[in-house]
Amino acid sequence: DGGITQSPKYLFRKEGQNVTLSCEQNLNHDAMYWYRQDPGQGLRLIYYSQIVNDFQKGDIAEGYSVSREKKESFPLTVTSAQKNPTAFYLCASSTGQLPPYEQYFGPGTRLTVT
Amino acid sequence: GEDVEQSLFLSVREGDSSVINCTYTDSSSTYLYWYKQEPGAGLQLLTYIFSNMDMKQDQRLTVLLNKKDKHLSLRIADTQTGDSAIYFCALLQGNQGGKLIFGQGTELSVKP
To answer: Going residue by residue through chain B (112 aa), what tens digit of pLDDT does each one get?
Structure first.
């Protein structure tokens, strides 16, 4: 069964702690993306990676970090420097080399920081 | 920067047609997309249109693109209660490796 998995579905952390969100895909896609979604807003791009061992900042990268050591995995770390980390985080992947870059999304992780 | 605008809510009766609208500012976008999000879930790609097309039809879905007015619409024929969801339009930013910019989403409510 091909797809994108994100774990966990719900995550609770105390302020000041770093937390890592998992994203795995078995679609053999080259490109992977992390988005943040806040209530009543569209998705905003945090980081994206078009190929293993390479990634670029999106529009709201401050306070986040990523790695892309394997094609199928693109974990996102929310650091204590992120001022407002509570949000719904979505991971996506696409074939990546040429348009139309059809992006397939995982089910999301809802992070709550108190 | 690029701006993508959608109205926030739309309510229709089951069996009617729904039309969800999207306006944008960057006319250089080559691909424009429609995604569907059900409560608490990820996004599902419904369809996309290349910028040199005016219309694309896929079963109950019709996409219309007016490049002159920078207006994109999604028509859902014979709307069902299962179509209730949030619909996002998105634009490809230049050719920068799949960077999409999203509208804020339109919540479609289908009443029986």
So the answer is: 678 999 999 999 999 999 999 999 988 888 999 999 999 899 999 999 999 999 999 999 999 999 999 999 999 999 999 999 999 999 998 766 788 999 999 999 999 9
Cβ–Cβ < 8 Å for A94, A29: yes
**Nearest-CA distance B109 → chain A (Å):** 15
CA distances from B97 to A56, B80, B110 (A): 10, 35, 36
User: Which residue is it, tokens 């302020």?
Assistant: A15
By the CB < 8 Å criterion, does A111 face chain B?
no
HSE value, Cβ hemisphere, 13 Å, CA-based, for A22? 9
DSSP B3-52: -EEE-SEEEEETTS-EEEEEEES-TT--EEEEEEE-TTS-EEEEEEEETT
Q: Residue B79 and residue B77: Cα distance in Å, rounded? A: 5
The number of C-beta contacts closer than 8 angstroms across A and B is: 73
The tokens of A61 are what? Answer: 């990268």
Q: Which amino acid would we find at residue A75? A: P
